[in-house]
Write a structure and sequence with these properties.
The chain is of the alpha/beta class and 286 residues long. The chain is built from 14 helices and ten strands. It has two domains: 116 residues, ATPase, nucleotide binding domain (Nucleotidyltransferase, domain 5), CATH 3.30.420; 160 residues, 2-Layer Sandwich (Nucleotidyltransferase, domain 5), CATH 3.30.420.40. The strands form two sheets. The protein has a five-stranded mixed beta sheet with strand order 3-2-1-4-5, sandwiched between helices.
């Protein structure tokens, strides 16, 4: 019995399966060791009683998460998982690794994350090469939800938005300078707050200004990330995450202009991760 988890900073998708007929899906908040400690992660997992109910049956846990890019941070998540899934062998790895397994499988390719944050890497079929570092929501995250949210709020405060969009934000969120400052500078998880405005952008995607805004963010991501890989025109470029999925038409348009060969675009890589690990476990059992 295996349990696969794919976690961004906003949400975590879980799938439990016996490899045959049984497959159960669960959802929790996202876990990022930059922002969350072991105690919080364990407590939040335990809140999902359906998830904890299967814990005695779990033999293997494969967790892929944002921020899980070093041993010192991974242990924060690993301890929480072992406290809940006491009989399981636990593996914690970076969300980029999960993105590679979910999109490239065993084949070479470039895999990109466009969700709450953003990141990219190249997989040569055996080794992952991260050429461009992920700088997080303050310095980077181009074309991620935090990037768009930060730019949107900045232009709102500077009165640079089209009147319809400016008024729409006030009407839907009752935005004020004081409220924005409180959410960003004083409350926990400001990256999730910034990314939450993607729903507004998606709901109003027919506005030309918003389409141009999203397109320009994708172009910036391509210039900063994808073009840094020398073979970006020779291998497929895959995308995972909610921003890539919900704005896939604009993403494909930007990639076409920049001569990028688009491969897989998926919102929830956890489904593909299940198939990847089942295949690997079957091979190792032979």
């Amino acid at each position: 019995m295996i349990l696969i988890a794919d976690s961004g900073s906003t949400k975590c998708d879980w799938i439990f399966t016996d490899g045959e007929s049984q497959r159960l899906s669960f959802h929790t908040m996202g876990f990022n060791p930059f922002f969350h400690n072991t105690e919080l992660i364990e407590n939040e997992i335990r809140k999902n009683t359906e998830l904890t109910a299967v814990s005695p049956l779990v033999d293997h846990v494969f967790f892929y998460g944002a921020g899980a890019s070093s041993a010192s941070r991974n242990i924060i998540i690993e301890k929480a998982l072992k406290a809940v899934f006491t009989k399981a062998n636990v593996v914690v790895d970076h969300d980029l690794t999960g993105a590679i397994y979910a999109t490239c499988g065993d084949e070479p390719g470039i895999s990109c994350i466009l969700g709450t944050g953003s990141n990219s890497c190249y997989y040569d079929g055996s080794v992952i090469h991260e050429i461009v570092p992920a700088l997080g929501y303050i310095l980077g995250d181009e074309a991620g939800g935090t990037y768009y949210g930060k730019d949107l709020l900045r232009m709102f405060l500077y009165n640079e938005l089209p009147e319809k969009i400016h008024n729409g934000l006030i009407e839907q969120f009752n935005l004020t300078k004081e409220g924005i400052f409180e959410a960003i500078y004083n409350k926990p998880n400001p990256n999730v707050y910034l990314a939450s405005f993607m729903r507004f952008l998606s709901d109003n995607r027919d506005e030309k200004w918003i389409r141009d805004f999203i397109y320009n963010g994708f172009s910036k991501f391509i210039n900063i990330h994808i073009w840094k890989y020398e073979n970006h025109k020779e291998v497929p470029v895959h995308f995972v995450g909610s921003v890539a999925y919900h704005f896939s038409d604009l993403l494909k348009e930007a990639c076409k202009i920049h001569r990028i060969n688009v491969g897989v675009i998926t919102r929830e890589p956890v489904i593909n991760l299940v198939e990847y690990h089942l295949r690997k476990l079957q091979i190792s059992a032979q």
